[in-house]
């Protein structure tokens, strides 16, 4: 499927942030913005909802903690009890470091895998690059061109809000 | 180990380690014969509250200094609150010295707080002689101890005043020169504070249990002071915000302060646990006695507090402040900040009381003393806060702080 985009190129992040607000206020839907580095406040300006990843992270952590405690209590308390340092078989203080580490491990890997799956970042996935300069020093605002979109008006709007150039780009997605 | 120490404090255990201590080491060493219980309780509770509030007060300056050397912009909005906290350093320091001298004079040969100040405890041949404590005389002697106390409080006070004056002069004259200077002052202060806060924790708190020692103790006390200081700054900021001041302060600043409170509650727990686990695992009598007294000692007097300490200072802030939304909601921050302040005051209660009062401590005098200190601290802090604009208007980062987002 082929889609057409108008690309507004910006030189400065402050100009970009104001432009995002103005363009959205004018009723134009922004497809995405590409920047060489994370820009403070850009999520709010674009109206992107907050990620729900932290909720998943909490439950991954809970799984890790439960698994670590179960593993240690079962192994050292029931399956193969040993006296270590004269401590009780189930000596909780000794289990805390391992429980902490496994909580972190489960949380980190769970979050990473979930993030990759949600973002569709698996091997051989091709990421569309609108303008390679967005990996260097330019900020690129992409607006999808539907049938009947007036490119002239759009160009004027972007230029009026500080875009140094406005290009058209066709992207093909399999 | 459960047979040792219960109900009698560290003296009996120490007595087992070396016979000389047995003569003075009975349970009543600080007991009836020397000073009235109410007097000892008064001194112990004054000492506990004063060490807590003096530390929190100094944390105000540490907060300013850390943010200055880190070139942090967001915190400018609460900088004046942190500056105002240091108003208690000088009065608190003088009171600390007075309490120490008073405990010495009123104790009649047995300092009301410090076992190592017992008459003749470092003189060989004296009936009170204690070889272990005598071995520490190079560090724990009157001149050096008082000298350290004056030096540490003096350093904290001097740098607090210096940073405050630079900030006030900047209000008048503007420019970046004052800020440049305060970076040097802050860096010097932080180096000196790192050393002095640790040693003051040994001096003012750890030396109460004279035989006992822990290399984690300086960090443990600092973590307690630091997280309490952040909770205090946060609570003051919320109070001012709700009273209609600090209109530039918004949820983003509170969010960051909330993150710090959340993070350093975990840091405190980490330090607490590092100290506990090593002692629990090694189980050496001379180390384990500290937790033996607090976990079941004195007929289990402090046991509930031992666990409550962990719940209020770790579990509660950890679970309540975990989500982003909670850290941006004033009511949540308020509840947790108050819990953290009460919790760490109780943490100092746990550090001071078993060593000074054995089983004789209570809560009526202690809570009253705590409130007396709170009132005095708030009075001095707020009057210093009222003396200058609530936001350092000419600070180079004030604009950045206004537009801070998280």
UniProtKB/TrEMBL annotation, chain A:
<dbReference type="InterPro" id="IPR021776">
    <property type="entry name" value="ActD"/>
</dbReference>
<keyword id="KW-0812">Transmembrane</keyword>
<keyword id="KW-0472">Membrane</keyword>
<protein>
    <submittedName>
        <fullName>DUF3341 domain-containing protein</fullName>
    </submittedName>
</protein>
<feature type="transmembrane region" description="Helical">
    <location>
        <begin position="94"/>
        <end position="118"/>
    </location>
</feature>
<dbReference type="Pfam" id="PF11821">
    <property type="entry name" value="ActD"/>
</dbReference>
<feature type="transmembrane region" description="Helical">
    <location>
        <begin position="55"/>
        <end position="74"/>
    </location>
</feature>
<keyword id="KW-1133">Transmembrane helix</keyword>
């Amino acid at each position: 499927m082929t889609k057409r985009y108008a690309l507004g190129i910006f030189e400065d992040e402050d100009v970009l942030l104001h432009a995002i607000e103005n363009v959205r206020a004018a009723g134009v839907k922004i497809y995405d913005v590409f920047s060489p580095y994370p820009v403070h406040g850009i999520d709010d300006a674009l109206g992107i909802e907050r990620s729900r990843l932290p909720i998943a992270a909490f439950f991954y952590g809970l799984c890790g903690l439960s698994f670590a405690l179960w593993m240690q209590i079962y192994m050292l308390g029931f399956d193969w009890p040993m006296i270590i340092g004269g401590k009780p078989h189930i000596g909780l203080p000794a289990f805390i470091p391992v429980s902490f580490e496994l909580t972190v491990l489960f949380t980190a890997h769970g979050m990473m895998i979930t993030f990759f799956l949600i973002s569709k970042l698996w091997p051989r996935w091709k990421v569309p690059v609108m303008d390679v300069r967005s990996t260097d020093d330019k900020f690129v605002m992409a607006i999808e061109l539907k049938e009947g979109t007036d490119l002239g008006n759009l160009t004027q709007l972007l230029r009026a809000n500080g875009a140094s150039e406005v290009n058209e780009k066709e992207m093909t997605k399999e | 180990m459960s047979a040792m120490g219960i109900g009698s404090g560290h003296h009996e255990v120490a007595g087992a380690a070396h016979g000389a201590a047995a003569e003075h080491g009975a349970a009543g060493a600080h007991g009836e014969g020397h000073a009235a219980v109410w007097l000892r309780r008064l001194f112990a509770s004054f000492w506990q509250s004063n060490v807590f509030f003096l530390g929190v007060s100094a944390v105000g300056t540490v907060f300013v200094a850390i943010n200055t050397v880190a070139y942090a912009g967001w915190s400018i909005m609460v900088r004046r609150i942190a500056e105002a906290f240091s108003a208690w350093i000088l009065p608190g320091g003088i009171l600390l010295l007075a309490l120490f001298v008073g405990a010495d004079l009123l104790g009649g040969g047995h300092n009301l707080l410090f076992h190592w100040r017992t008459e003749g405890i470092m003189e060989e041949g004296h009936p009170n002689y204690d070889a272990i404590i005598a071995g520490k005389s190079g560090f724990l002697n009157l001149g050096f101890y008082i000298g350290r106390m004056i030096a540490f409080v003096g350093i904290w006070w001097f740098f607090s005043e210096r940073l405050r004056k630079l900030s006030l002069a900047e209000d008048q004259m503007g420019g970046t020169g004052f800020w440049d200077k305060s970076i040097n002052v802050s860096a010097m202060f932080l180096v000196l504070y790192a050393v002095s806060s640790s040693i003051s924790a040994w001096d003012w708190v750890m030396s109460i249990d004279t035989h006992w020692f822990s290399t984690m103790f300086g960090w443990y006390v600092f973590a307690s002071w630091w997280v309490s200081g952040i909770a205090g700054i946060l609570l003051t900021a919320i109070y001012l915000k709700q009273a209609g001041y600090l209109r530039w302060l918004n949820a983003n600043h509170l969010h960051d302060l909330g993150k710090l409170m959340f993070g350093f509650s975990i840091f405190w727990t980490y330090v607490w646990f590092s100290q506990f686990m090593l002692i629990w695992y090694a189980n050496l009598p001379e180390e384990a006695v500290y937790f033996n007294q607090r976990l079941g000692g004195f007929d289990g007097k402090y046991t509930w507090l031992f666990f409550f300490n962990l719940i209020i200072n770790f579990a509660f802030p950890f679970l309540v402040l975990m989500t982003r939304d909670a850290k941006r909601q004033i009511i949540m921050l308020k509840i947790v900040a108050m819990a953290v302040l009460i919790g760490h005051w109780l943490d100092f209660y746990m550090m001071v009381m078993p060593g000074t009062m054995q089983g004789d401590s209570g809560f009526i005098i202690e809570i009253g003393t705590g409130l007396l200190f709170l009132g005095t601290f708030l009075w001095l802090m707020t009057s210093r806060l009222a003396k200058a604009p609530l936001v350092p208007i000419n600070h180079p980062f004030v604009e950045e702080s206004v537009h801070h987002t998280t």
